[in-house]
Design goal:
The chain has about 675 residues and is an alpha+beta fold. The chain contains 22 helices and 26 strands.
Length: about 675
């Protein structure tokens, strides 16, 4: 019962009592006839009741009291909302302003008026206030101030009228930004190839190193930081986070400044690798993350900056220049010394390469198997036979030493895996293209040996040893150097030497690309062991059908931009082997004026994803095709790279999974990657 009803009932009771008193007085005191006295008393009673009720309604209306309990004191509430110091806005479901209080009027720009969309004042979407994910409010900037906005609808089902309360958090935001700007960033800096050059290869290296050191100290001073050289050619650097965005935007010009410093008679440019920890953790954890980022930069070829975050994601800057090949025999000896104890202690040893294995992959797996056999371990080689390697694969299976070493993917299970098993992965560091990714989940120890630049920071496991040497021409070169360190002369058969030599020939295009002193030293060792280039070259001979198929793909050659050319296959005629696109890309590089070549074809798939597209890229050294194909989830070398795309695979360029792929969309993605990541799928 509301106040109006209560007042009316009480008033009627009083009138009834007065009616009885009046009737009694008229009947007995005045001695008026009963009918007359009753009529007069009733008339007076009705006049008082009706008049009283109207008087009660008038009084309640004048004082602003509603008969609806839910609206009780509404005027007082509106008066409170109007004068309170917290901004309040009422909008309709479309975000148009219906009402606002004085505090919001003061906070909003001068152009603000009623019926204006709230989106015209700030970037707030009014319906986002009712989202369950935003129960803690939505941060919004209004006229230079920051507010956390909370929204309320009249009922959960009614979003047509929304009341929003704006809490000023400008002071908290300013404090948060100040703390973020003052957050310490830890960077690890190393002069590339310092260990080799400081060993006496170049007398004037020390002078060039001192010039690099002065440049680093000046760079640090510009960013109001601190740097210390804790070992020759190795530095730790500290600076505030407020300077990191400017470094990002500028692309770390320190990389180019360092390369202006040269040494030696050949004017070899200096270069540095930088690992930066953009972390919220303590200094010890930041330093460890910075060392990981720096090691990642070295595994990608050096001359670049890698920024790693707490979530493991990495950003890359630089790395556009081609790394100068260097002698890697010293590094191969270190790798051998680290790997041999693991092989000898392992319960079992498995060796795995990449999907669609080529000569380099098969040869490197065979070389590691040879080292295991010399250590008294019988390994298992997980490499699938394919048309590209069928000749050397069948040759090895016929040899007594290897015929029982190959893993049968159709019949074998993981029974060969024992406690303390060791998995050695060669010629690949991208988990997406491991020959049998499930093996990494079954073993306790993993070693990675590769020559491709590391393409991703995402590893579902923690390897015991990660040896990635981008300056090596091939995995066969690395393994040949390992064999030379441990194997007595004459232990390799001519067939084994020829296969390793074919692996080097494949990845160097017959010693015309990415060759260093270590490449020729490895080839010389294999020649001494019975290798014959005329025999190894025969592995690359094509049959007539393959030759005609490649000619048809090459006939589609067109220019993407100046110096960039692409050849494409057809969705209706998928190819059987990825090596086909590699050979097409190699052939295109023989044409004058081609600085970078790309071949794109659809692959036939039996058990894998469908459709599956493969891209092979080559360059003359002036274009870093590895960086281009990284944007599509691939990788490789500065002048030799590849990628595979399929529906459901996440593409870094799009930052989402691919869908509805065909030759046309793959080429559009490639063009966008060449253009630096700008995409228009019209």
């Amino acid at each position: 019962m509301n106040d109006k009803t209560k007042a009316a009932v009480i008033y009627c009771i009083i009138c009834t009592v007065l009616f009885i008193i009046l009737f009694t007085v008229l009947s007995y005191a005045v001695k008026m006839p009963g009918i007359t006295s009753a009529f007069i008393a009733a008339a007076v009673y009705c006049i008082f009741v009706i008049g009283g009720i109207f008087l009660i309604l008038y009084i309640f209306k004048k004082n602003g009291v509603s008969s609806d309990p839910s609206g009780k004191g509404m005027k007082s509430v509106l008066r409170l909302l109007t004068t309170m110091g917290v901004p309040v806005v009422m909008t309709n479901g479309e975000g148009k302003i219906n009402w606002f209080n004085l505090a919001f009027r003061s906070a909003a720009p001068d152009k603000m008026k009623k019926d204006m969309p709230i989106s015209a004042l700030c970037d707030l979407k009014i319906d986002s206030l009712l989202d369950e994910k935003n129960v803690g409010g939505v941060l919004c900037e209004l006229n230079g101030r920051y507010f956390r906005v909370y929204g309320y609808a009249q009922s959960p089902e009614d979003s047509g009228h929304i009341t929003s309360v704006w809490i000023d958090v400008s002071a908290e935001k300013e404090l948060e930004e100040r703390l973020e700007n003052e957050r310490v960033i830890v960077a690890s800096v190393i002069v590339d190839m310092a260990d080799n050059f400081l060993s006496g290869l170049h007398d004037n290296y020390a002078q060039a190193s001192a010039a690099v050191s002065r440049l680093l100290f000046d760079w640090t001073a510009e960013n109001r930081g601190f740097i210390n050289e804790y070992e020759t050619g190795k530095y730790v650097m500290l600076f505030n986070a407020e300077y990191l965005p400017a470094m990002r935007q500028a692309g770390f010009p320190i990389l180019d400044e360092v390369k202006k410093i040269t040494f030696g008679e050949d004017a070899i440019p200096m270069s540095i690798s930088v690992g930066i920890a953009n972390s919220q953790k303590d200094l010890s954890a930041k330093y460890g993350l910075a060392k990981e980022a720096m090691q990642f930069a070295l595994q990608r070829g050096g001359d670049q900056v890698v920024i790693k975050n707490d979530d493991g994601k990495a950003e890359f800057f630089g790395g556009a220049s081609k790394r100068d090949p260097q002698l890697t025999s010293l590094n191969a000896r270190r790798l051998l010394n680290q790997t041999l104890p693991l092989i000898k202690k392992a319960g079992s040893v498995l060796i795995m390469g990449h999907k669609n294995a080529d000569f380099d992959c098969l040869a490197a797996c065979m070389g590691i198997a040879k080292i295991c056999l010399m250590c008294g371990k019988t390994p298992t080689i997980a490499v699938r036979r394919n048309k590209n390697i069928e000749k050397p694969y069948d040759m090895l299976r016929e040899k007594t030493e290897y015929k029982d070493l190959f893993y049968d993917f159709d019949r074998d299970s993981f029974d060969m895996i024992e406690h303390g098993s060791l998995l050695i992965i060669v010629d690949v560091n991208n988990p997406f293209i491991f020959e049998e990714p499930k093996l990494t989940e079954q073993v306790s120890q993993i070693v990675i040996i590769d020559h491709h630049r590391r393409a991703s920071s995402d590893m579902p496991f923690e390897p015991q040893i990660t040896y990635i040497e981008p300056s090596a021409s091939s995995a066969s070169e690395i393994v040949s150097q390992m064999l030379e360190q441990i194997a007595p002369a004459g232990i390799l058969t001519p067939e084994e030497a020829n296969l390793l030599l074919a692996g080097i020939q494949l990845d160097t295009n017959n010693f015309t690309r990415d060759c260093g002193a270590g490449t020729y030293a490895a080839a010389q060792y294999l020649r001494r062991e019975g290798g014959d280039s005329s025999v190894s070259t025969a592995y690359f001979n094509l049959d007539r059908d393959d030759f005609m198929r490649e000619l048809k793909i090459e006939s589609s050659m067109r220019q993407i931009k100046e110096g960039y050319y692409v050849c494409t296959g057809s969705d209706s005629a998928p190819i059987s082997e990825p090596a086909t696109v590699a050979r097409v890309a190699e052939t295109m590089m023989r044409i004058e004026g081609v600085h970078a070549s790309f071949a794109v074809c659809r692959l036939k798939t039996a058990n894998g994803p469908d459709p599956l597209y493969t891209i092979s890229a080559r360059s003359d050294g002036t274009v870093n095709v590895q960086v281009i194909l990284e944007r599509l989830g691939g990788g490789g070398h500065h002048s030799n790279a590849g990628a595979q795309l399929s529906n459901g695979k996440k593409i870094p360029l799009l930052d989402k999974e691919a869908e509805d792929l065909n030759i046309r969309t793959v080429v559009l993605l490639l063009e966008a990657a060449i253009d630096g990541g700008k995409l228009t799928l019209d």
